[in-house]
Amino acid sequence: MPISKIGTITIGQAPRADITPILDAALPPHVTAVHSGILDGLSDEQIAARFPPGGGGEGEPVLTSRLLDGRAVVMGKAAVHRAVQLEIDRLATREGCQVVVLLCTGEFHGLECPPGAWLLEPDKVLLPALEALVGRRRAGVLVPLGSQVASEVEKWKGLQRAPVFAVASPYTAAEGEVAAAARTLVESGAEVILTDCMGYTAWHREVCRRETEVPVVLSNQFLADILKNML
User: Fold this and answer.
1) Cβ pair 197, 170 in contact under 8 A
2) InterPro entries given for it (predicted)?
3) Which of 160, 181, 208, 229 is the most exposed place for a label (fewest CB within 10 A)?
4) What would the pLDDT profile of 69-117 be if each residue is shown by its tens digit?
């Protein structure tokens, strides 16, 4: 049966004004989309109580996302993982989505989709493709939080050459901060810049290109292109 309905999950609040237009542009006319977020309808206090950084124990990785009003929020990964799985189940079973797309480049081990539905996880789809794309070149990886760099080193260990990292939040960094991060990557030897967060947009890409003149790969656009080929 042709795919006619997909669901997307942001680890923030939906709809994501920065990501949704990119995905919607990839959808053929016969496909509808349900956009959801694990923080939908929650107050600041509820988010802090349910997704506290470090709530999964000392050294727990953190993730960041965007609220409807544009503010950024930082959350503990363990609680996010549980909420994402619940939302996958809801979209596939109650909403009837045939494809569920996770809008986060973080690594989530053990996520499952109910039988009959596809689960599109960026870390499982984009990572191998980007490793092949980069080849023997040195990649520069742009990440939102300094505290994520240690886990990023492990994530990108499959690259033929060790990557370099720089930090600039897609949600709070000013143009100067993004430009400085891009320059740092190239000065450290990067020949291509990979944006390791769905929140980086065409604006971030243009800032990086203007400062460095090296290719810049947007994770959200890459994912949209893959999704388009499925539908």
Assistant:
1) yes
2) Uncharacterised_AroM
3) 229
4) 999 999 999 999 999 999 999 999 999 999 999 999 999 999 999 999 9
Return the half-sphere exposure (C-beta side, CA atoms, 13 A cut-off) of residue 42. Answer: 21
Q: What is the pTM of this model?
A: 0.94
Give pLDDT, residue 57.
84
**Residue 3 reports pLDDT greater than 80:** yes
Kindly tell me the burial class for residue 167, based on how many C-beta atoms sit within 10 Å of its own C-beta (0-12, 13-18, 19 or more). Answer: middle
Domain limits of the chain? 5-123+221-230, 125-217
Q: How many helices (H) and strands (E) does the chain have?
A: 8, 10
pLDDT of 183-219, one tens digit each? 999 999 999 999 999 999 999 999 999 999 999 999 9
**130 contacts 217 by C-beta, under 8 angstroms:** yes
Burial of 5 (0-12, 13-18, 19+ CB in 10 A): middle
Query: In the prediction, which pLDDT does 56 show?
Result: 79
E strands, 4-117, in order: 5-10, 32-37, 62-66, 72-76, 99-103
- Cβ neighbours around 199 below 10 Å, total: 24
CA dihedral 179, 180, 182, 185 (to 10 degrees): 170
Give the separation between CA 36 and CA 50, rounded to whole angstroms.
17
Amino acid at 88: I
H helices of the chain, in order, are 20-26, 44-50, 77-93, 122-134, 149-155, 175-187, 202-212, 219-230
